[in-house]
Specification:
heterodimer, A: alpha/beta, Amidase signature (AS) enzymes, 18 helices, 11 strands, 40% helix, 12% strand, B: alpha+beta, Arc Repressor Mutant, subunit A, 3 domains, nine-stranded mixed beta sheet, 18% strand
Chain lengths: 513, 507
């Protein structure tokens, strides 16, 4: 294994340790990851934009600061990939849409500002379903991302780019956004760790809004500790986001490092442990629970009867908010402008721009949401959905009165083939059955790899959910399980992933993507 | 446009009962905007900034930006709500009003819908003859202003026929309080005057609270007037029109009166009123139809998910209540007594919407009589000539300075009027204009005597006549001297000097 190959396979925490010890420079680490991107991203297509010059300049600055003895954050000098939903000053930010092609934001999203201030090195922007609408990254206007475990398969969505970049060792860390599972479901299908923090734990300022009341930014990593370290960097109150929580958070890294499940009560949600889930997904789920039980955790079955209405409620609330959030894409101030032949009124230009700039899934949801908010339908659709939301929250309250955390399989199946569900929106929506309830209730969730499904050899994840503001519990239980599984497997799950260097594409093939 | 028929006003009132409703938008003068840290152009400090210089990602609706409620705007809104006699909601919420328009950066306006910050109030409004009306307030809610469109090309400056339009987002996000009355019944023939007096009262309120610059000509205060008529004896309300763009006190009164006459003519002929927005045209004194409006306009309101409810503490509300200034009607009664004005003099001030200007001018040191004289006299004349409100033409400080210059004998009334024209034209302070235009009264007797001698030389018989007891003969000399001095002389002093010359028996 070459030195560079060694560097890209390091966890963020280990790389940070090497950087702090002076064994390696940030410029070396950054260059190793940029080289890796150049080698494999033609096949994976995790990135929409890579800013090598700026990354290397930022890395050199961290190296200089370190040499000067300045005090640096724990992750200083570690490269990071950023989901294209987050605006980045001076770097394109498209949210996976043609309508924002070429737009360069004049400001940084708060989580981006925080990672920069902590000395992390943004490598570039990762691919995603357009405006984060999807579960496969196939709705990206710039072509799909491929799952590093099997390039014919989806990497999950909407944050398939972030998950794939981490799984393909193109970046040790990534930022994602999770509106209904867009961090956790990609983690599940790529053998990575993904966390959706408590709603309001991480600022949404600068996150191109999909559904304001559901969106949350979170870490995408290869280990639970790395996620915790990144969580500690990006969380915290932000006066630019009124829904951000003003409280002192405990250290997530400490929770991960001191993981201990003795006496922890883990509730298994009965309604999400059913035949609707692939056999291998359920098998690994139950094996994981047994491991935890052997370590002193108590496994309890709980019921959440209203979870079954979650998807229906979600697909009213999300489109309603999205239809309004996406109204600003009208060509007047930024982004694409399409003028009809022979000119036109501003209304005609707006219509032509939106017709050309939005993909079919975005249009589908805008129309759905516009309808759900219309006078005469509001109470029946949006109003009822909000009531279901309250019921789901009550289910969580009742469950958390009995247990400390809940456990479910993260998603029903392993990665499906690209194109397999593209023409069946309802089948696509069902991918998020286990992840959506957390967004409706605002509670935090983590997906941790639980093994490979025996039937297809593809990774699956287990999801833990905790009460709002109790994110630390996720890192405790996730960290504990991770240690147990690594001991059992004899190494991290990604060691079993295929070697992508054999998949480096020629320029022509790359163009075909 | 087809000629619009108007019914004689008295006749219209005989046949129909007018019902009015008023929506007043008050721009708050906070330091920053309603939901963004950008400077607020409705604050005097930032007025007149270059287009699109008072903006942030939030007011431009850039992707990823989020609104944050301005606490100062909330406090000012609560103060206004309390002054309107409203209840303050323990919890109020913002909502999105969705519609596409290029001056609306996000293509939705953050407003309040079913949970306004203030509701159910009442305002005492006094008419010119001293009668008072209680105007019922439905609600007062917070919202953000839109940007400003300028249509370029075409003859009218309107959107029809324009080649292109420019958008200025400086105003986008300016904090507004929209005050909505309930339908106002019983004003009858006084409805137009009541509408004007109501808006004037709101302006007084905003000024005494210090929450707005409240200058109508700048759009700090904007009024939409709803008017409907119902046949005498009818229960059901008639179909209403909403007249927008009514930007002076004068126009409010005229617009309501015009709509009463226009609607009456249509209804009397058996026609029906179209429910619509109408635009007021200051120049022609008429209204023209805007877009049709119906109750079914679908703005797809829903609670703003980017903001949390506004939950003011009882302590805050009570401290704001304790700090409320005197209600306008009570204040008027007090000031009238203090100033010693007759009914007629005081009405002049109130009807001109000049109460605060006069009060401030007196506070700056002018006598009540002088303050009243300049505001209701020359400034009102200049305002009428340019079809605007006198309050916007000069500042109380400038008027007080002018009065002081007259008292000191530096200016005669006639010179003072010229100085005031300079003030209105923006030439500077009265003293600066006196200096720049050289308008001060010539108080140097030597210069006056020289001018008198010259006048006497061409009218040698005048001194004889004066000595013969025909003192009025001095008038001819005084006139000639004043002419020679280009009016910059004190006529009384000239007269004294002429009589002195006659008495001394010279020449």
């Amino acid at each position: 294994m070459s030195h560079a190959d060694d560097l890209i396979r390091l966890n963020a925490a280990d790389l940070a340790g090497r950087l702090a010890a002076g064994d390696v420079s940030s410029v070396e680490a950054t260059r190793a990851h940029l080289d890796r991107i150049a080698a494999v991203d033609g096949a994976v297509h995790a990135f929409l934009h890579v800013d090598a010059d700026r990354a290397l300049a930022a890395a050199a600055e961290v190296d200089r600061a370190r040499a000067a003895g300045e005090s640096l954050g724990e992750l200083a000098g570690v490269p990071i990939a950023i989901k294209d939903v987050l605006v980045t000053e001076g770097m394109p930010s498209t949210s996976g849409s043609k309508i924002l092609e070429g737009w360069i934001p004049p400001y940084d999203a708060t989580p981006v500002r925080k990672v920069r201030e902590a000395g992390l090195i943004p490598l570039g922007k990762t691919n995603m379903d357009e405006f984060a609408m999807g579960s496969s990254t196939e709705h990206s206007a710039y072509g799909p991302t491929h799952n590093p475990w099997d390039l014919e398969r989806i990497p999950g969505g909407s944050g398939g780019g972030s998950a794939a970049s981490v799984a393909a060792f193109e970046a040790p860390l990534a930022l994602g956004s999770d509106t209904g599972g867009s961090i956790r479901q990609p983690a599940h299908v790529t053998g990575t760790v993904g966390v959706k923090p408590t709603y309001g734990a991480v600022s949404r300022y600068g996150s191109i809004a999909l559904a304001s009341s559901l969106d949350q930014i979170g870490p995408v990593t290869r280990t639970v500790l790395d996620a915790a370290l990144l969580h500690d960097v990006i969380a915290g109150h932000d006066r630019h986001d009124s829904t951000s929580i003003d409280m002192r958070w405990p250290s997530m890294a400490e929770a991960a490092r001191n993981a201990d499940v003795k006496g922890l009560r883990i509730g298994v949600v009965k309604e999400l442990d059913s035949d609707g889930f692939q056999a291998g997904v359920r098998q690994r789920f139950h094996e994981s629970l047994e491991l935890l039980e052997q370590q002193g955790a108590e496994i309890v079955e709980v019921s959440a009867p209203n979870f079954e209405y979650s998807i229906a409620a979600y697909y009213l609330i999300l489109p309603a908010e999205a239809s309004s959030n996406l109204a600003k894409f009208d060509s007047v101030r930024f982004g694409l402008r399409v003028t009809p032949d022979g000119g036109g009124t501003v209304e005609q230009v707006m219509a032509a721009t939106r017709e050309a700039g939005f993909g079919p899934e975005v249009k589908r949801r805008i129309i759905l949401g516009t309808y759900a908010l219309s006078a005469g339908y509001y109470d029946a659709y949006y109003g009822s959905a909000q009531k279901v939301r309250t019921l789901v929250q009550r289910d969580f309250d009742a469950a958390f009165a009995k247990v400390d955390v809940l456990a479910t399989p993260t998603a029903p199946t392993t990665a499906f083939r690209l194109g397999e569900k593209l023409d069946d929106p309802l089948a696509m929506y069902l991918n998020d059955v286990a992840t959506i309830p957390a967004n409706l209730a605002g509670v935090p969730g983590i997906s941790v790899p639980s093994g490979l499904a025996p039937e297809d050899g593809l990774p699956v994840g287990i999801q833990f959910l905790a009460p709002a503001r109790e994110d630390a519990r996720l890192y405790n239980v996730g960290g504990a399980l991770e240690q147990l599984l690594i001991a059992e497997w004899g190494g991290p799950i990604l060691a079993k992933a295929p070697d992508l260097t054999t998949h480096e594409l020629t320029a022509t093939e790359e163009g075909a993507l | 446009m087809a000629r619009v028929e108007l019914m004689d006003y008295e006749k219209a009132l005989e046949l129909f009962e007018p019902v009015i409703g008023l929506e007043v938008h008050v721009e708050l003068n906070t330091e920053t905007k309603m939901f963004s840290p950008a400077p607020n152009p409705a604050n005097e400090k930032y007025h007149g900034a270059e287009p699109n210089t008072l903006v942030s990602p939030v007011c431009l609706g850039l992707p990823g930006s989020l609104p944050v409620v301005n606490g100062d705007a909330v406090e000012k809104s609560i103060s206004l709500g309390l002054a309107l006699g409203c209840s303050i909601a323990a919890s109020s919420r913002f909502a999105r009003k969705n519609y596409f328009y290029p001056d609306l950066a996000k293509n939705y306006q953050i407003s309040q819908y079913d949970e306004p910050i203030a509701f159910e109030g009442s305002v005492e409004v006094e008419l010119a003859d001293g009668r008072t009306f209680q105007v019922p307030i439905e609600r007062a809610h917070m919202e953000e202003d839109a940007g400003k469109l300028t249509h370029v090309g075409g003859a009218t400056g309107r959107i029809q026929g324009a080649e292109y339009s420019l958008v200025d987002y400086n105003r986008a996000g300016v904090p507004l309080v929209e005050i909505v009355t309930k339908p106002i019944f019983g004003a009858e023939a006084d409805a137009p005057e009541l509408a004007r007096a109501y808006v004037s009262t709101i302006r007084d309120m905003a000024l005494s609270l210090g929450i707005s610059e409240a200058r109508m000509e700048r759009g700090n205060l904007r009024c939409d007037a709803n008017v409907s008529l119902r046949p005498r004896g009818a229960e059901q309300l008639g179909i209403r029109t909403e007249t927008k763009n009514v930007n002076s006190f004068r126009s409010i009164e005229r617009a309501v009166r015009y709509e009463i006459q226009r609607q009456a003519a249509i209804l009397a002929k058996g026609g029906t009123i179209t429910q619509e927005t109408r635009h007021w045209h200051e120049d022609t004194g008429t209204t023209s139809p805007g877009r049709p409006k119906s109750d079914a306009d679908d703005y797809r309101y829903f609670p703003e998910p980017d903001l949390v409810p506004v939950v003011p503490t009882t302590e805050l509300i009570e401290s704001l209540r304790a700090a409320l200034p005197e209600p306008p009607a009570a204040r008027r009664r007090r000031l009238k007594g203090e100033w010693g004005f007759t009914d007629l003099e005081f009405q002049d001030v109130v009807n001109g919407g000049l109460l605060n200007e006069v009060a401030a001018t007196i506070a700056e040191g002018a006598t009540p009589a002088a303050a009243r004289k300049w505001w209701t006299g020359e400034l009102t004349r200049l305002a009428n000539a340019s079809e605007t409100d006198a309050s916007g033409l000069a500042t109380p400080e400038q008027v007080a300075q002018l009065a002081a210059l007259v008292d000191a004998g530096t200016l005669t009334d006639r010179l003072a009027r010229q100085v005031l024209e300079g003030v209105v034209a923006g030439e500077g302070s009265p003293q600066e204009i006196v200096d720049a235009r050289g308008l001060a009264v010539v108080s140097d007797d030597g210069a006056l005597i020289a001018a008198i001698d010259q006048a006497l030389a061409s009218q040698p018989d005048v001194l004889e006549k004066i000595r013969d007891g025909k003192v009025q003969a001095a008038g001819a000399v005084i006139g000639a001297v004043m002419k020679a001095m280009q009016g910059k002389a004190d006529a009384a002093r000239v007269r004294e000097l002429v009589l002195e010359r006659a008495g001394s028996g010279g020449a």
